[in-house]
Structures are given as structure tokens and as C-alpha cells.
Amino acid sequence: MNEPTFLILTALAGEPRHGYAVIEDVERITGGRVRLRAGTLYAALDRLRGEGLIEVDREEIVQSRLRRYYRLTGAGEQRLGAESARLREQATIAERRLRARRTDFGGATA
Amino acid sequence: MTETRYRRLLALYPRDFRQEYGEEMLAVLMTDPRRGQVVDVLRGAGAAHLRAVRSGHDRAARVVQIFGAILLLGVALRRSGGGLLNPLLSAEPRPIYLEGVDAIRLLGWGLVVVAAFRGWRAIGAAAALAALAGEIASPARFYVDTPASVLHVYWMIVAGGVVLIAGLVARGGAVARPRGLAAIVLAGVFLALQSPILFVHELSPLRSGLVALAAALVLVALIRQSSEIRGRLVCWAAPVIVTLPLVQWGFGGFIEHNMRHPESTRLINPMQWTVLVLVPIVAFVATSWLGSRRSKGRPVAADGFGGTYDGDVRRHD
């Protein structure tokens, strides 16, 4: 799973959101590091809908413009859970090795 | 950037994608007009077109791989006819003789058929690659003296390439017997049987009859497919079919020149090679595009965007 996909699923795990709200939430959870653009966002949303990981929650017309809210499906929840577990496992290994490395170097950074 | 300009930009997306997300994307673009949005939208439109072309091809690709390999196996058997049939037809015992390239083609296409049914993607790709190399090497041996030798079998080289790509694109896993398989096997047998060795001069018209029968059986197999798969098969067949008129009319003068002037044989120049490679690719893309347009004939709004919303909120439960 690539990073934008992971972040979009994470954004939708909180609550159903429309496209621009997903962009804002992704920016928030990455501390401003990632700000998705429209082409990338909608390509990912289309793919995730096709894979059944997200679905449309509701549609609204706001200032004569369509606003469609997306939500995570059960399959999306499972996939995000599995990906989070995988990343956590890898992060744990990385931290453990870094701790061991610091111990080997007697607390000095290389 | 104005809304009109964004709309023009979004018009680059496939119609279905535009219908589904056009208005939403427009709203996001108008709210967030950052630098880089244009490039991102252009990239997204290109990717969406590629996905639209690819979509649905993965299922048809397995059928293409199986049918194509069976037919190419039939042709390879016919071309190896002398080495295989002479010993069998001869009253005196003779060893079976196969040239290296013939053996590679026969084994390669045979293995592709098995791999396609079992869902062995890597083995299928390796076997198809070897068989395609055999298809190319066979006429390439005579290319310098007779460049037309490559042109006469160019359709087979393209067909080999199509089968190789189909195997790579096809959905993974073992497959059930596709519809029309019996007709294709019979067509393959007819193609194999049209070896000149089996037909003395007086019976040679029968050889053309066998080819016609094989073509009719391929047509039967095509008709037996579901309309979606049938459309896709036509797309995959287009690159092969288009090479026949291309060589016939595009290279007729070239072939005739070489026949009339054996002392100054012309080789195929880089521009001609480019045409030989590009035309089949364009044929595939064009038929895929036409197919996707025809199969999605739903009405859309004049600006290409769908969606007239009859309420403020529509829930999807």
C-alpha cells in the first residue's frame, strides 16, 4: 500500500469526509508534510472504491457544487488494520535495532 | 485559474471518470488552486485513460493467451512438417529431424498453453519469450539475402508478441476451459495439417480450404464468447490483422523491388521498422478506445459532466 492510499484510508477511518476534507485531514495527520492534489486524490478514491475499501456515504450540494462524502467499508477497515500492523512491526524492529546500535556505541551517535 | 479552464482540463479525463468525479474535482480545484494542480490533473487524466484501456483486458487476456498459443502451435507444427512428417510417411525408417528454432517454437507455444491453463505466469512468460525468439530467429536467418522473409511472417511475430503480453496482463490463477476451445483446437489441427508434404500438387487447393476452415472455426470461437470478452478479443487480434494489409500494401513495392533487383537488395530502413512496430500498437489502442466508447454509451450532460442532483443531500446506505 503506498503512502497516499494509507493516508486517505486513515483520514476516512475517523469519519466520512468529502474530497477537500480528506486533503486537509491528510495534511493535518502528516504535520503538513503531505498535501494531496486533486488528480492524485481522485485517482486513489476511484481505485479504492473499485477495490471495495471505501464507499460513498452521502452527497450534498453546497453553494451549487457537489460534495460527496466517502466512508471506510469493512474491507477497508481490515486492510488499514493489516497495513498499520505491518508498519508498526517494522517500526518496532527499526527502533529495537537503533537502541541496540546506541548501546553498542556506548550511547554515542555514529 | 478560471472554472472554464479547469473544466477544459478535466475534459481530458475519460468520460466515465469525468461523469463520476468531474464536479467534485472541480470544487476541490476551485477551493485549492495550488501550483502543481495542473500537472497533477494532467498526470491523473493520462493514468485514468490507461486504466480504462486496461480495465477488462485482464480476463480476455487469458483467453487470448490460450487461443493464440494453440493457433501458433498449429502453425509451428505445419512449418516443422518436413522434419516431423517425412519419417512418419516414409517406408524406410528415418529419424525425426527438427531445427533448433522449430523445436523452440513447438516446445514454447506448447508450454504456454499448459502454463495458461495452470496459471503459471512466469513459466508462461518465459516459454512465450523463447517461442517468440524462435519466431524472430527463423526468418532473421535469411533477412540479409531476402528481407521479405521477415515481412511474410511478420504477422506471426506480432501474434507471438501479443500472446506474450496477454500472458503478462492476464489475471492470475488457474482457469476453467474457455468457451470455444474445441473450435480453436480444431483450427490449430487444420493449420498443422496444411503442410505441403501432405498435399501433392493436384490436392494443393485443399490446403487453402484448410486455412479457410481454420479461419471459420476461429470466427465460431469468437462468436461463442460473451459480448464483453468478444470485444476485447477483437482488440487483441487487431494488431495481428492490421499487419496483413500493412505488409501487402505498405511494403508491396519494397518486396517487388527486391525481387526484380536481387543485385541491389534493399533492407528495411529505420523508418519502415518504426512503422512496423507502431502500426500494431496504434491498432490495439484505437480498437480499445473505440470499444470502450461504444460500450459506455450512457447519456451525459453537454459539458461532459453527469449528475443532476434533485436534492441537497443523498444518502447511500
Question: Quick gist of this model?
Answer:
The complex is a heterodimer of chains A (about 110) and B (about 325). Chain A is of the alpha+beta class and about 110 residues long. Chain A contains four helices and three strands; from the N terminus they run αβααββα.
Rounded mean pLDDT of chain B is 82
**Biggest chain-to-chain interface with counts:** A-B, 25 and 32 residues
Alpha-carbon Rg of chain A, integer = 18 Å
Q: Could you tell me the number of beta strands of chain B?
A: 1
The percentage of residues in β strands of chain B lies in: under 5%
- Bulk shape of chain A: elongated
Strand content of chain A: 15-25%
What does this entry look like structurally?
The complex is a heterodimer of chains A (110) and B (317). Chain A is of the alpha+beta class and 110 residues long. Chain A is built from four helices and three strands; from the N terminus they run H-E-H-H-E-E-H. The longest helix of chain A has 31 residues, at 74-104. The radius of gyration of chain A is 18 Å and the shape is elongated. The mean pLDDT of chain A is 89. With 317 residues, chain B is mainly alpha-helical. Chain B has one domain. Chains A and B meet through helix 2, helix 3, strand 2 and strand 3 of A and helix 2, helix 3 and strand 1 of B.
Q: Helices and strands in order, then pairings?
A:
The complex is a heterodimer of chains A (110) and B (317).
Chain A: H1 3-14, E1 17-18, H2 19-29, H3 38-50, E2 54-62, E3 65-72, H4 74-104
Antiparallel strand pairs in A: 1-3, 2-3
Chain B: H1 3-10, H2 15-31, H3 37-54, H4 57-79, H5 81-89, H6 100-118, H7 121-140, H8 148-152, H9 154-169, H10 181-193, H11 204-223, H12 227-250, H13 252-260, H14 270-295, E1 313-315
Which structural traits does this protein have?
heterodimer; A: 110 residues; alpha+beta; Arc Repressor Mutant, subunit A; 3-stranded antiparallel beta sheet; 17% strand; B: 317 residues; mainly alpha; 72% helix; globular
